[in-house]
Amino acid sequence: MQFVYEYGLFLAQTLTVVFGILAVVVGISAVASRDREFGRESLRVRKLNNRYRDMRRTLRGAMLDRKVLRRLRRSEKNAQESDKPAPGPDNRRVYVLRFEGDIRASRVENLREEITAVLTQARPGQDEVVVCLESPGGLVHSYGLAASQLSRLRHRGIHLTATVDRVAASGGYLMASVADRIVAAPFAVVGSIGVVAQLPNIHRLLKRHDVDIEMHTAGEHKRTLTTLGENTPAGRRRFQQQLDDTHDLFKRFVHRYRPVLDLEHVATGEHWYGEQAVELNLVDELQTSDDLLMAKADEAEVFEVTYRRKQRMSKRLTLAIETMLERVLRGS
């Protein structure tokens, strides 16, 4: 009887595991089938005017008496029909883009597609783009490309406003500086116009264990500093020169779009909060992105444009791990 009992328990555990695996496989298959059905990429457009209207109606419906609510709706409908023109091709439009940056500015591929889509419809001198920026900066070439994507709007005569609710520092501010107007929350972190690079060197540890590293290069400055070999004073000087050159490029780019800045004062690598940044001309106005977009919705049609590209599970997992490690290292 003991054998039968143990066998029955083993069989039940085995069937539980098997059914669990089957459920996971069926779920993955369903998701994969749905992804194939909807395609690997999509462009989503949401009208924020409708969102604000629905929020107002929902809250008001819970607060007001039904009779009062009906009278109010009738009066608003009559006022809208008499005072406001119907939506049409000549109405002013505001396109909203959102960029949340990591160290690699990995969302730049989405941003470039969103800007391309907007440029197919936006009218110079009439429409506007608002980009909601959140980024502490990262790789030079990645954020340089992101800033160049925003400059496409400026070059086409589309007014660009950048909003910063929390942080737009270093590469994030490089992007924000392209805008005609920068709006920041009072405690948003902006600035950090500087360049930093660091790398470990374990040459002494390897030497202590009689491990030799050979490195062969063609070109005097093909490699300046290394993590394994012995770094030389000449290599350090060249590496510092490269950082200085990158900093000068950063400053020239910012000055091109914001000539009012005193770069000798603000391009020191320091960051400032929104209220301080206004005084330094790093930003133009103190306001949250929420208030800005609500105000835009009162005077124009506001569309939020989001491009999505399906990524492989391995890439999503890698990005999630990198983001987590970045936040831990930054202490956030």
In short, what is this structure?
The chain has 332 residues and is an alpha/beta fold.
What does this structure look like?
- The protein is of the alpha/beta class and 332 residues long.
- Among the domains are: 42-49 and 88-192 and 270-330, 2-enoyl-CoA Hydratase, Chain A, domain 1; 194-213 and 224-258, no CATH class.
- Helix content is 53%, strand content 17%.
- The chain is built from 12 helices and 9 strands.
- It has helices at 2-38, 48-63, 66-83, 108-119, 140-155, 171-176, 203-208, 233-257, 263-266, 274-279, 289-299, 313-330, and strands at residues 41-47, 93-100, 128-135, 159-169, 181-184, 189-191, 271-273, 285-286, 301-309.
- Strands 1, 2, 3, 4, 5, 6, 7, 8 and 9 form a 9-stranded mixed beta sheet that branches.
- α6 links the parallel β4 and β5.
- α4 (108-119) runs parallel beside α5.
- The longest helix is centred in the first third of the chain and has 37 residues, at 2-38.
- The radius of gyration is 27 Å and the shape is extended.
- The mean pLDDT is 84.
